[in-house]
Design goal:
By secondary structure, this protein is mainly α. The protein is built from 13 helices and no strands.
Amino acid sequence: MMPPQAGGAMLARLGRQSLRLLLPAILAAGALTLPAYANEASNAHYRAGMSLYAKGKVHEAEAKFRAAVAADPRSDAAYTGLGIALYAQRKLTDAVAQWRKAVSLNPRNVSAYVNLGAALNDLSKPDDAISACRSALKISPTSPGAHLNLGRALYKKKRFDEAIHEYKAALKTDPRFSQAWLSLGWAWNAKKNTKEAVRCFERFLKLNPTEQSCTCVLKAYIAKYR
């Protein structure tokens, strides 16, 4: 049987290999309500930016979001969109600045708080990520993304039981949230509960039958611990 340290090393490799898969799950942008006062030019730039982002054209999307901000500097949606385009380019500090601007304009912008949690986790600032995610949950207690990113911050602080609680909360709202299953598997592995880790990884693979970036690592883990 594979020693626990080896399982942890496999998961660490998985975390590095699966950024493309994880990125859409930890960011929230598509459900934003455009402010009623925003001018139509800003709204149009925002919508164009979201369309380009969905197609993977992040540089073009960034330009559209910047145009949205220029057309209406009061639009928290425009800053939120700009943040996701910058995050996709791994400009994490710049993305954080945009999302902080968004929540300063609209303290109820759940998407910006969720995204802050993601970026602050990536910047190894779990305490700040926890604060951002809890702000999101005060507004939207069932937000799967907020629970996921809060769980990841808690995991970084080795508060594994609390992380498991948050991942389960995300799955209670969305049982098909595959990244929550993947993160829950990591947490169970950290607690050396390989049986539960295998169950979670199997659920993840079932939900992502065509995913290639992490399939081999997870299948190897499952074969060792099943």
